[in-house]
Specification:
Blueprint (H helix, E strand, L loop, with lengths): L7 H13 L6 E2 L2 E2 H14 L4 H8 L19 H8 L1 H12 L2 H4 L10 E2 L6 E2 L3 H20 L2 H17 L6 H11 L5
Helix pairs in contact: 2-3, 2-7, 3-5, 3-7, 4-5, 7-8, 7-9, 8-9
């Protein structure tokens, strides 16, 4: 499995771009948004996610998210992001950022899963590999946020455990184990 840390020049370029977009100046649980993004990319590497998923995790907040409204670039800059991290990785960043969580999360244990794009309002069925990547990024992101903010962990830990338990068949074994390890106590 290729680890994005092995390609330091590419990873350095991505981190430099994130910094230039202001990620190092934005407060986020655990320090800054840039520090959070780096940790999410690193966790995905530890879980042996493929390189596209690792880069998508590193850039997952590029367009803002349903839970973090601050975008680093405009949607009109998607090609710039694709040139930096690759077409598939950028498509995963868009998928992650565009997710209407209130609509999609309750659907994650259904088949098929119908996504709702919060930017366009359109609904569609993502391909299984993209859905699995979305869930890996979601798990890495949420686990990092909760590890760095006890108040959020107390408030959302049990619900996130239930979300990941319901969709565990679409998570990698390492991601599901991390969810169980970190979140199971929230259900007690």
């Amino acid at each position: 499995m290729n680890n994005i840390g092995e390609d330091l020049s590419r990873r350095d370029r991505v981190e430099r771009f994130l910094d230039e977009c202001g990620a190092a100046a934005i407060a986020h649980p655990g320090g800054t948004l840039l520090a959070h993004l780096v940790r999410v990319g690193d966790v995905l590497a530890e879980w042996d996610a493929d390189e596209d998923i690792q880069f998508a995790g590193l850039c997952h907040a590029m367009y803002g998210t349903d839970g973090f409204g601050r975008a680093l670039v405009e949607l009109s800059d998607r090609q710039t992001v694709a040139t930096l991290i690759g077409e598939r990785a950028e498509a995963l960043v868009y998928l992650y950022g565009s997710c209407d969580r209130a609509t999609v999360y309750p659907r994650l244990d259904t088949s098929p899963v119908i996504f709702r794009d919060r930017f366009t309002g359109l609904e569609y069925e993502p391909v299984d590999t993209d859905l699995r990547a979305f869930l890996e990024i979601t798990a890495a992101n949420e686990l990092d946020v909760l590890a760095h903010n006890a108040e959020l962990a107390d408030k959302h830990g049990a619900a996130l455990y239930q979300l990941f338990a319901r969709s565990s068949s679409r998570l990698s074994p390492r991601a599901w184990q991390a969810c169980r390890t970190q979140l199971a106590s929230a259900t007690s």
